[in-house]
Amino acid sequence: MSVRTQQRPKVSSDEPDVVKVGRTIAAGARLRPIAMSLLAIAIVIVVWELYKVVGPEDGGEYFGMRLLPRADDVSMPHIWSIFERYWQPDVDVAGGSTVAVAVLQGMAFSLGVAGLGWLIGVVVGLGLAILMQRFRTAESGLLPYVVLSQTVPLVALAPLVVGWGGQLKFFGRPWEPWMSVAMISAYLAFFPVAVGVLRGLQSPAATQVELMRAYAASWWKTLVRLRLPASVPYLLPSLRLAAAAAIIGAIVAEISTGTKGGIGRLIIDYAQAATGDPPKPYTAILGAAVLGLVASALVGFIELALRRYRPVEARG
What we know:
316 residues; mainly alpha; MetI-like fold; 2 domains; two-stranded antiparallel sheet; two-stranded antiparallel ribbon; 10 helices; 4 strands; globular
């Protein structure tokens, strides 16, 4: 009795190569933002040092206005001088701590406060967006005030928040200064989320909405299964903008209210030593810039979690 052996179909030897190429392209797409960020930093460093070589030390005045900054070592220290200052002691801090340690501590404080403000702003923005999408009257009545709220300068708003907060207590605990900073961060963070998510909730086509109605889906099911997934491409950029706005709000609020411990207050303290120690103020300024990049990177983890809701062409 003969046994017929079944031959397996041959797998093309090119398939593993195609898979490898696809993975390489995907990895390159993920590393592209990092590479572009590093390239942007390198360009800034080159332009900075190039201007110190060709720029006037006393600046340039045209038509009675100073249009070019000064290129002397007091106004524009060398990049390597700024980085060397990080590892030198900070005379304003007890214990012989270095400037790098003081800047990192300030960044951590501001990041925590801004993170709380960002979270509050996201919740408020989402709530306003859902409310305005659900009721046309709410959109007509609230949206102009949402836009108008961003025209109020933080310098004028910060003292009011501190004054109002000083009269509040939570479970017997007094209002802390950092809470005012968090509220100002939330004030800036809610706007891009409210506007972006509202546009995303309204993005589904009329045929899609009619299909949900044909299935007798309630407003809540339509929101969860159609409108919220459709708003993800609009939500992700809004979260990044909200994170940047929260960082800016925290820094400006720390400067305006005099809240100690954050990178904003550190910028003011280090600016007082600019004449005798020119690189020192730039260490805190660079710390604030890096803080914005860190906040944007943290939001990137949310993008990874919501990756499956993004359009195919935007996934990379």
